[in-house]
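Teaching assistant here, posting this on the class forum so everyone can see the example we discussed in section. The complex has four components, and the goal was to see what a joint structure prediction looks like when all of them are supplied at once.
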Amino acid sequence: MLDDRKLAVLRAIVEDYVSTNEPVGSKALADRHNLGVSPATIRNDMAALEEQGYIAQPHTSAGRVPTDKGYRLFVDRLSQIKPLSGAERRAIETFLAGAVDLDEIVMRTVRLLAQLTRQVAVVQYPSLTRSSVRHVEIVPIAERRVMLVLITNTGRVEQRMVDLPEAIADDRIANLRAVLNACLDGCGLSQVPETVADVPERLPAEDRPVAATILSVLLETLVERHEEKIAFAGTANLAAADFSVGLRGVLEALEEQVVLIRLLGETGGLSDITVRIGSENPYSGLRGTSIVAAGYGSGDRELARLGVLGPTRMDYPVTMGAVRAVARYVGQILAGS
Amino acid sequence: MLDDRKLAVLRAIVEDYVSTNEPVGSKALADRHNLGVSPATIRNDMAALEEQGYIAQPHTSAGRVPTDKGYRLFVDRLSQIKPLSGAERRAIETFLAGAVDLDEIVMRTVRLLAQLTRQVAVVQYPSLTRSSVRHVEIVPIAERRVMLVLITNTGRVEQRMVDLPEAIADDRIANLRAVLNACLDGCGLSQVPETVADVPERLPAEDRPVAATILSVLLETLVERHEEKIAFAGTANLAAADFSVGLRGVLEALEEQVVLIRLLGETGGLSDITVRIGSENPYSGLRGTSIVAAGYGSGDRELARLGVLGPTRMDYPVTMGAVRAVARYVGQILAGS
DNA sequence: CTTGGCACTCGGGAACACAGAGTGCCAGAG
DNA sequence: CTCTGGCACTCTGTGTTCCCGAGTGCCAAG
C-alpha cells in the first residue's frame, strides 16, 4: 500500500513543512530532496498519500500539509529521536546542578526545557504517592494550634495548620512526634493510613484525642495532595510561533492543572516518550497542538512526568530528544539529593 | 488651562475608548454623553487636550485616543474606585476561606483576581524579610546530611539540604535544634544574622563545626530567598483582549520574576493602590500595558504585594476596586491563620 | 465663547485584474 | 506496469484603483 518511496515523500513533506511552515508542493520537494524522481511521479504518490489521509491540501491547488495521521506515521516509523549536542548536554548538567531544593529543581527544569525546545514546558512535581516519609514534624504555633510538616524522601515538604481540641504541653508534643516518627519513618505514603492506626496505642490515653486530630489532618493531606502540583514555563514562545490559532486554548489548558495532568498522561516505562498529536489528545482546546511527554524518576520508579506542548507542526525528533534528555538528568539529580 | 468641561471631555473620551476600543470622535461624544455643547465645541476642546498631550489621533482624521498622560490624569483626578458588588464580595470571602495552607491561599488569590478582573493577576508571596522565625527544624536524612527547615510566622516554609563536615548523633542534633530554637524563636528574620552569632557559645565545642555549617546555610537561605517568589494566573485573558500588540512582551515579563517584582513596586501604605500606566513602567516589553497593584498584609504591616496587569485601555475604576478588595481580604485571611 | 457650515484628509473595504504555484490528467517512453 | 514531460486548469495572495464615510480644522456669524 505504501511503498518506500511514498514513505520517503511523506517524510520529506513533514520535514519541509515543519521548517518552512508553508504547504509544500511537488516541485519544491523534487528540488530540495533528491528522491531521484520527477515532480510528476511525486504528484502521483502525493495523491495516494492524500487518498489515505496522511496529507491534505488547504485549498485545491496549494501544496500539501501533513494531517495528524501523517505526523503520527512520521513519529512512529519515519523519524529517529535526535540526541542533543554535547554542548547542550553540558549546559543541562550545570544548569540543573545548582538547584538547592525541590522547588528550585522543578523551576529550573521547566525553564530549561522551555528554552531548549522553544516551546511551552510542563513539569509535574514528584508524586507524593510513590514516595515515602522521611520525617514528620509537629511545631507548636499557639496554645491550641500546631503546624504539621511532612517531609518526603523526594524532598517535598507538605505543611498544614492543625487546630487542636485542647491545649497540650510541649513535652507531650515531643513524645507524640517521637512516636509518629518511629512508626512512619521510611513508610511508603500509600501505607501511611494502615501504619498510622497503631499510633494511638502507643500513646498515653490523655494524648489520644489530640493525636486523633493530628492524624486525621495528616491523612487528609495525603489524600488532597494526591491531586498533583505542576509548573510550566515558556508561554512567551507561544507568541513567537505564529500559533495564533489555538493560543487561547493552550493558555486555558495551562491554567487547568487537572487537564494538564491528564495531558501528560500516565504511561509506560521510565523515559518512554509519549507523543500526542493534535486531535489525539483529550482536550478540545488543543486542536493543532501536540504534546511530547516522558516520565522521570530516580532509580527505576517513575516519580512524575514532564513534557512539552507545541504546535502539531513541531520538530518532533529534536523535541523528543530534548524531553528525553531532560527527563534523564532530572532523574539523576533527584536520585542524588 | 484645563477648565471643567475639558476635563469632562477627557473623561468621556477615556470611558468611551475603554468600552468600544475605537478612536472616539466629536460627534459620537456629543451624542452619548450629554455635555450640553455641540460637536464643534468639543472639537475645540479636543484640540486643546491634544495640544497638551492628553489625547492623540492615530491618523489625521480619525477619532482621538487617550495617551498615557491622559489615562494618568483620568486615574488621578477623574475617576473613583468602584467598589465591588455584594455578590462579588461574598464570592471572594467564600473562595478564599477554603484555603488550607499558604500555597493554596496564594494560588486561590491569584485565580480569584484574574477572574474578577478578566486580566492577568500577579501575587507575591508574603515577604520573608518582614516576618519572623516560628520554628527551625533539623531533620537527619543520612549520616552526614540533614535537612534544614525554617518555618515563619506567615506560614511560609523554607527547606534546604545541608551536607555536614562530620557525622553527628541524633541527640546532638536534638540539642542543636533546641539551642537554635531557643535563640531564634520569634526573632525577626532581619535580626537572624546577629542573633545567630551567639549560638556557638552555647554549644559544646565538639558541635561547633557542624553548627557553623548549618548556620551558614541558614543565613544563605535568608539572603537568597530575599529574591521573592511570585505566582500568576489569567494569561488566557491576554488572548481574549485584542491585545495582540505586546502579548509577547507581557508573557516574557511574566516569566522574569525580577522584572515582575519591580513592577509590583514597593510603595506606600497598606491597601494604597499604585497604578503604572504604559510607558511609566520600567520595562520596555510592556508598552501598552498598565499595572494596578496594592500591598497586602496582616495588621498594619505590608507583607507583600499583588496586582493586575492589563492593556492601558482597561477599566481602571473597576480594576482598582477589585485589587483593593482582594488585597484586603487576603490580609484578613493571613491575619487569621 | 459657542455654533453651524464647509472643504479637506485619510483609512478601510469592495471590486478587479493578474501572476505564480500547484494540481490532475494524459499519452508516450522505458 | 511505472515513470516522465506536457498541458490546461484552478486557486490564493497581492497589488491597484476607487469610493464612501467618519472625522477634522477653520471660519464667519450668533
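For the discussion questions: Chain B has three domains: 4-78, 86-126+228-336, 129-224. Strands of chain B lie at 55-56, 65-66, 120-124, 133-142, 145-152, 157-163, 230-233, 273-277, 289-296, 304-311. Think about how each of these relates to the inputs above.
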